[in-house]
Write a structure and sequence with these properties.
50% of the residues lie in helices and 12% in strands. The chain is α/β, with parallel strands linked by helices. Strands 3-2-6-7-1-8 form a 6-stranded parallel beta sheet, sandwiched between helices. It has a 5-stranded parallel beta sheet with strand order 11-15-14-12-13, sandwiched between helices. A two-stranded parallel ribbon has the order 4-5. Helix 13 runs antiparallel to helix 14 (355-361) and helix 19 (418-441) runs antiparallel to helix 20 (446-456). Strand 2, helix 4 and strand 3 form a beta-alpha-beta unit. The longest helix is centred in the N-terminal third of the chain and has 25 residues, at 104-128. The protein contains 28 helices and 15 strands. Bound molecules: adenosine-5'-triphosphate. Adenosine-5'-triphosphate (ATP) is lined by residues 4, 7-8, 10, 34-40, 235, 238, 263-264, 521, 523, 580. Adenosine-5'-triphosphate binds next to helix 2. Residues 128-147 have a biased composition (Basic and acidic residues). ATP binds at residues 32-39. This is DNA 3'-5' helicase. Residues 128-148 are annotated as: Disordered. One of its GO terms (cellular component) is cytosol.
Length: 620
């Protein structure tokens, strides 16, 4: 891929350079459609300002900050700007933590307030406990919180990890999004320090950036003196997370920029993109490339019966597409082949053989850090498998000591003499051989067998909660473990270790499946979008409602009449994101309980003039 910096200039690039040449305080919002080159313009603006103001930024030890939505996006932008040290690229969590990390005593005070709130909450629970058992359990939790609170006083250093462990001075992912905006809004010194370190801040995917974060950045803009530039790049039509702000509340003096072009998609794909958008905000995009360069492409809409076997019908669709478009990539699972966008991880899990694992992390009311963490590949109970256990089972004999030295607690802690290190390495190697036997044997409960074995032999570093679970009387006995966390861990440990291989393939993006949310910002040559409410939908989404195939609920109607976001709005935006990921060829496959009614609805909604059916598939 050539760098985005080399993309031809658009009017937006020129407008941004004019803004970047200004001094003093200024801001802008680029709000433009899918594939319009927002990220490309962002990268070009970064390169421009880092070149133009290099001397000044260096002299003042300042950087240009760019906040992205995912680690993948951050890595791509880093590449685009050739790892220029003047450009600081980070996800929102990393950025926010970096801002406040030096303000240790404020972090400590914040944790103290959280624990005080927990203690107040638990006292209420104790007072209201209906049974002696519930009371006893709440009292035990109160004692744990109390010990955490006591431990905090001697804490010298506060850190940040996936999950919180307040007693050990660690705040979690979710805490960051609450704590830092609050600190930015209430601590003028912090705001000053941030603005002098980052006189320019860009935010990509701004529509899905948490409201409080955006508000705190705007507060920063309002309060700082001197040179400061705040710029947002987003698309309100692509807001797919409920926590996102949607439209940026721009300050009156900011410049608003739209990009009407689409540089990504073929003509046929763009027509579908525009049809989906038409009933949303009505904006329509035009091909960005010249007539000769924009390919015609292909786009098809299939309506298949909801009782069709999904695996067979998907093979048939892919074969049909390969034949019709003379493009064998449709039947390939390799990168560059077909990308199949499913609504939920559960559907990918079924197809890739990790349904039990998925179910374990999605028990009803599972803590979000576990369920969402599983979906993202960051859940702490799984981390030992991804980082240590599976690598130890797959690595060559020569590579094993390196993995052990990096992760094994027994090889890291308390070694004072070389002889001890040798002995421990021999013991750890023996434990690895036993682990390999456990994993090769596999079967129900082998996840638990592997985890207990590696923990016992110090091969893995477990998070405080996992340690508490595996060793309830050990070092982390004061950790408070919710019932739901306990339930997830029990179910996880009951799983078959073989399921982790399909999961790994999925989160490493090596399978053709991706979730519709997970494709944010990406693009693929050949995309299939599955619309399949009968296999299950995300909360607050329904393609059947969007397409007029299911009745709106009373809540939908109430939301609609009061101008609030509705199930239909959310589903349309998600569909818009999905169809606009396709560069050349696109297929939408709707599984419908009533195929004829679905065809009529699609035509009436202007989404497809001539949807194809199972008969068309069998006719070739
Ligand atoms: N000025 C340009 N000239 C030619 N191609 C461009 C230009 N800008 C962007 N592109 C190409 O268009 C595609 C989409 O660009 P980009 O990812 O920057 O868009 P985006 O608006 O951020 O997308 P989305 O919001 O849909 O994720 C990329 O393949 C990119 O290389």
């Amino acid at each position: 891929m050539t760098s985005r910096i080399e993309a031809p200039d658009t009017h937006t690039d020129r407008a941004l350079r004019e803004i970047l040449d200004r001094r003093g305080k200024t801001g802008f919002v680029v709000n433009a459609g899918a594939g319009s080159g927002k990220t490309t313009s962002l990268v070009k603006a970064l390169a421009y300002v880092a070149g133009d103001r290099r001397k000044q930024l260096r002299a003042r030890t300042q950087q240009v900050a760019c906040i992205t939505y995912t680690e993948v996006a951050a890595a791509e932008i880093h590449d685009d700007v050739h790892d220029d040290p003047l450009v600081y690229v980070s996800t929102i969590h990393g950025f926010l933590w970096d801002l406040v990390a030096p303000f240790q005593s404020d972090i400590g005070a914040w944790i103290e307030r959280q624990l005080a709130a927990k203690l107040a909450e638990i006292s209420e629970k104790i007072d209201k406990a209906g049974t002696p058992d519930k009371r006893r359990s709440a009292e035990q939790d109160r004692d744990r919180y109390q010990r955490q609170s006591d431990g905090l006083r001697s804490m010298r250093r506060f850190t940040y990890g996936i999950g919180p462990d307040y007693g050990k001075g660690q705040i979690g992912h979710a805490d960051i999004l609450k704590m830092v905006p609050h600190m930015l809004m209430t601590k003028p010194l912090l705001a000053k320090v941030v603005a002098s370190r980052f006189p320019i801040i860009f935010v990509d995917e701004s529509q899905d950036t948490e409201s409080e974060v955006v508000k705190s950045l705007i507060h920063l803009y309002r309060t700082v003196q001197g040179d400061f530039l705040l710029g947002f790049f987003g698309d309100t039509m692509q807001q797919i997370y409920a926590t996102g702000i949607g439209r940026i509340p721009a300050e009156p003096d900011w410049t608003l920029i739209n990009k009407p072009e689409n540089f990504r998609s073929s003509r046929q794909v763009l027509e579908v993109v525009n049809r989906v958008r038409a009933a949303g905000d009505g904006d329509q995009q035009i091909p960005g490339r010249t007539d000769e360069v924009t390919p015609e492409g292909h786009a098809y809409f299939f309506v298949l019966p909801a009782d069709a076997d999904r695996v067979t019908s998907m093979h048939t669709v892919r074969r049909w597409l390969a034949q019709r478009t003379s493009n064998d990539a449709w039947t390939s699972d390799a990168p560059g082949g077909a990308k199949i966008l499913v609504a939920m991880h559960k559907l990918a899990a079924r197809r890739l053989g990790f349904a039990d694992l998925h179910a374990a992390f999605h028990v009803p009311k599972a803590p979000a850090a576990l369920s969402a963490g599983f979906d993202e590949g960051t859940a702490w109970p799984i981390a030992p498998f991804l980082n240590v256990i599976l690598p130890l089972c797959e690595a060559s004999a020569a590579a094993i000591p390196r993995i052990l030295r990096k992760h094994s607690t027994t090889l890291r802690d308390g070694i004072t003499e070389p002889g001890v290190a040798r002995q421990r390495l021999t013991a750890a190697s023996e434990a690895v051989r036993e682990l390999q036997t456990i994993v090769a044997k596999a079967g129900e409960g082998s996840v638990g067998d592997a985890l207990r074995h590696t923990y016992k032999h110090g091969l893995i570093e477990a998070t405080p909660l996992l340690s508490r679970y595996l060793d309830p009387d050990g070092e982390h006995k004061d950790q408070v473990m919710g019932e739901k966390t306990q339930e997830v861990l029990e179910k996880f440990l009951d799983c078959d270790v073989r399921e982790l291989y399909g999961y790994l393939q999925y989160i490493r993006r090596e399978s053709p499946y991706s979730t519709q949310h997970g494709t944010k910002g990406a693009e693929f040559p050949n995309v299939i979008v599955l619309l399949d409410d009968s296999e299950g939908t995300l909360p607050a989404h329904s393609y059947d409602k969007l397409l007029g195939l299911a009745e709106l609920s009373d809540t939908d109607r109430r939301n609609k009449s009061s101008g609030k976001d509705t199930t239909v709005d959310r589903s349309r935006r998600l569909l818009y994101v999905c169809v606009s990921r396709a560069r050349n060829e696109l297929a939408i496959v709707l599984y419908a309980t009533n195929v004829d009614a679905a065809i009529l609805s699609l035509k009436a909604a202007g989404l497809a003039d001539q949807p194809l059916t199972a008969d068309d598939l069998s006719a070739t």
